């Protein structure tokens, strides 16, 4: 969702998810503290995508639960901006 948002507004999309959130903050799309937390959490995606066969699902749940509010805040920020357009 974040990469599509950047692409739709004409921005070059960074290669890493970590940098996607940093760029969104630099452009004023999301607050800096949220960008930092989402950048830190972006490693979870890589863990799931690249080590699927050996995932500790209890650990995945634990990490995801810690960042659920951040994901909801990201959605709220983008929805607010979409409504303003």
Structural account:
- The protein is mostly helical.
- It has helices spanning 2-8, 17-26, 32-50, 57-84.
- It has one domain (2-84).
- It is built from 4 helices and no strands.
- The protein is globular and about 40 Å long.
Q: Could you say which structural class the secondary elements and strand pairing correspond to?
A: mainly alpha
Order of helices and strands: HHHH
In DSSP terms, counting alpha (H) and pi (I) runs of 4 or more, how many helices? Answer: 4
N/C terminus separation: 17 Å
- The percent of residues in helical segments reads over 70%
The radius of gyration is 14 Å
Give the beta-strand count: 0
What brief labels describe this structure?
85 residues, mainly alpha, 4 helices, 75% helix, globular
Task: Write the SSE topology.
Blueprint lengths: L1 H7 L8 H10 L5 H19 L6 H28 L1
Helix pairs in contact: 2-3, 3-4
Condensed summary:
By secondary structure, the chain is mainly alpha-helical.
